[in-house]
Design a protein that fits this description.
This protein is α+β, with helices and mostly antiparallel strands and 87 residues long. Helices cover 44% and strands 26% of the residues.
Length: 87
């Protein structure tokens, strides 16, 4: 069995962005797929709102990297206080 099997699996399709963000825990990263590149732009707006409201209440800051060509979004969650120390 290949040790990298989890990286070979196709990413899940993001049907509800807020719910997909909500499922991440501090220290985790995950990658999802959207149907079109313009959904990456929409996702960035949703993520900013999520970080400001729900993320702040939970003490989590979620950052994202976008692969517009392949319609992929990778998010990573860190504690808010860790982000303040790194800035």
């Amino acid at each position: 069995m290949n040790a990298n099997k989890s990286t070979e699996a196709s990413p899940e399709v993001i049907s509800t962005p807020s719910g997909w963000i909500r499922d991440i825990n501090i220290g985790e990263s995950k990658t999802g797929k959207v149907c079109a590149p313009n959904q990456c732009y929409s996702f960035s707006t949703i993520l900013a709102r999520w970080n400001h409201c729900e993320g702040a209440a939970r003490g989590i800051k979620v950052s994202a990297k976008y692969d517009y060509k392949n319609c992929l979004i990778t998010i990573t969650a860190k504690p808010i206080n860790q982000n303040a120390q790194n800035q």
